[in-house]
Amino acid sequence: MKDDEVKAQLKAINERMIKLEEAFLDVARPYAEIAEQMQSFQEISKGYFKLMSLYQKHGQISPEMAVPGLKDPISIDLLQIVIEKGPVNISEATDLLREKRGHSSRRIVRERLQEMEKTGVVVAEARGKQNRYSASEEVTNKWLELLGLVKNREHA
Prior knowledge:
- The structure is a single chain.
- The protein is mainly alpha-helical and 156 residues long.
- The chain has two domains: 1-61; 63-146, Arc Repressor Mutant, subunit A (Orthogonal Bundle), CATH 1.10.10.10.
- It is 68% helix and 8% strand.
- It contains five helices and two strands.
- The protein has helices spanning 2-58, 73-85, 90-101, 106-118, 137-147; strands spanning 122-127, 130-135.
- It has a two-stranded antiparallel sheet.
- A hairpin with a 2-residue loop joins β1 (122-127) and β2 (130-135).
């Protein structure tokens, strides 16, 4: 009979241990959620301070920072246009540049976009008889990294 009593006691202890583990998990769950939220807050804070540092260092935060070799003011404005507006044709880019600068030339816009395409800053997609220009994936990713919206691929 003793063996049966010992088995019953072990079974009861085992059931209590299972209930205790479940209770512990229930108690710990909110703390795990808080830890996740704190980690998310830290990531957001890092991004904010990175942006503030860039603003303090450069006096602005603009897409040209993703392409430091881009020095021509018209090309810089065109890069900002294609990043902000998405794919644009030459006419749309000229109109948007005219709004920004007060004047623009279709010929110059076409030349700058073609130069930027050759250097990999923008990509052209043929749609009918026109090309639509957008920022290249590499430039877009650099810009998003700069803003802290995606993790740096080298450190991920």
